[in-house]
């Protein structure tokens, strides 16, 4: 079937509050005039301020959700959120590449919930490199960049990660460049400055940002434009109210 809007898929956790994961991603896709598809990688039990627990979805069930969509639709970009471990992620991206050789993958490497609940154990460096070579854009915050590399300096960590793929180092939690995201490509490090540093926090802000980027990529913006416009979008979402769940409209 042909649609006038590009199609973007989210493979992420189901957050019943709608603030993060698949539901937040779909809201973001739709606001960017993309048709959004959602695949569950986990079922979570939470509100915007309490994380109670979760169940992981096995790889075969993730693939079973995706297969009928690939048979019927042209997927432009896939955003990946929480995932059980690097072994599952590598198997998944290898399988996706067989189905869609030219698809662009955006990975938001969620390592823990804002409540402190950990999703992913210490990453294996060899597996991580294999995964990253398949990824178009990695979107870690400063803690996630350090976690993935084992390094203490987030900018050095991002530089190392960018040897494998493009990296957007989010600056919302940085002590050295707070509010400024840094886009690492094979050629440059490009800062994306915030219009205002002190913004209300939101549950799922990383999900929203990476989904906005994925949408912009699907709409054929350059990588820099996709990240810059997405930063504008997330800042509007952060300012949308004083509570933890963002308004998207």
Question: Could you give a short description of this structure?
Answer:
37% of the residues lie in helices and 19% in strands. It has eight helices and nine strands.
Topology:
Elements (H helix, E strand, L loop, with lengths): L6 E8 L6 H11 L3 E12 L4 E6 L2 H14 L4 E4 L5 H14 L4 E4 L17 H8 L4 E2 L3 H8 L4 H8 L4 E4 L11 E4 L4 E4 L12 H14 L4 H16 L11
Give structural notes.
The structure is a single chain. The longest helix has 16 residues. The protein has a single domain, classed as UDP-N-acetylmuramoyl-L-alanine:D-glutamate ligase, CATH 3.40.1190.20. It has a 9-stranded mixed beta sheet with strand order 3-2-1-4-5-6-7-8-9, with helices on both faces. With 249 residues, the protein is an alpha/beta fold. The radius of gyration is 17 Å and the shape is globular.
- The number of helical runs is 8
Helix content estimate = 25-40%
- The mean pLDDT is 92
Low-confidence stretches are none
Order of helices and strands: EHEEHEHEHEHHEEEHH
What's the total number of strands? 9
Shape: globular
Proportion of strand residues? 15-25%
Order of strands, widest sheet: 3-2-1-4-5-6-7-8-9
Number of separate domains:
1
Q: Classify the fold: give the CATH topology.
A: UDP-N-acetylmuramoyl-L-alanine:D-glutamate ligase
Structural class by secondary-structure content: alpha/beta
| CATH superfamily descriptor | Ribokinase
Main sheet record: 9 strands, mixed
* End-to-end CA span: 28 Å
Gyration radius, to the nearest Å?
Answer: 17 Å
Give the C-level CATH assignment.
Answer: Alpha Beta
CATH architectural label: 3-Layer(aba) Sandwich
């Amino acid at each position: 079937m042909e649609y006038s809007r590009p199609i973007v898929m989210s493979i992420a956790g189901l957050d019943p509050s709608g603030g993060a994961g698949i539901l937040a991603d779909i809201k973001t896709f739709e606001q960017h005039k993309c048709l959004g598809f959602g695949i569950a990688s986990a079922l979570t039990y939470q509100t915007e301020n309490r994380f109670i627990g979760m169940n992981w979805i096995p790889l075969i069930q993730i693939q079973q959700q995706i297969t009928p969509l690939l048979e019927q639709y042209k997927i432009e970009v896939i955003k990946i959120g929480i995932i059980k471990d690097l072994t599952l992620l590598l198997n998944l991206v290898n399988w996706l590449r067989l189905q869609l050789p030219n698809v662009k993958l955006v990975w938001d490497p969620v390592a823990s919930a804002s409540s402190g609940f950990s999703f992913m154990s210490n990453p294996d460096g060899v597996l991580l490199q294999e995964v990253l070579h398949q990824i178009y854009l990695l979107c870690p915050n400063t803690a996630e960049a350090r976690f993935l590399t084992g390094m203490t300096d987030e900018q050095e960590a991002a530089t190392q990660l960018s040897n494998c793929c493009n990296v957007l180092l989010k600056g919302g939690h940085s002590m050295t460049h707070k509010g400024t995201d840094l886009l690492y490509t094979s050629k440059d490090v490009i800062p994306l400055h915030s219009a205002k540093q002190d913004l209300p926090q939101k549950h799922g802000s990383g999900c929203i940002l990476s989904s906005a980027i994925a949408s912009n990529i699907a709409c054929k913006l350059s990588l820099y434009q996709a990240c810059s416009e997405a930063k504008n979008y997330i800042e509007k979402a952060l300012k949308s109210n004083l509570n933890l769940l963002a308004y998207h409209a």
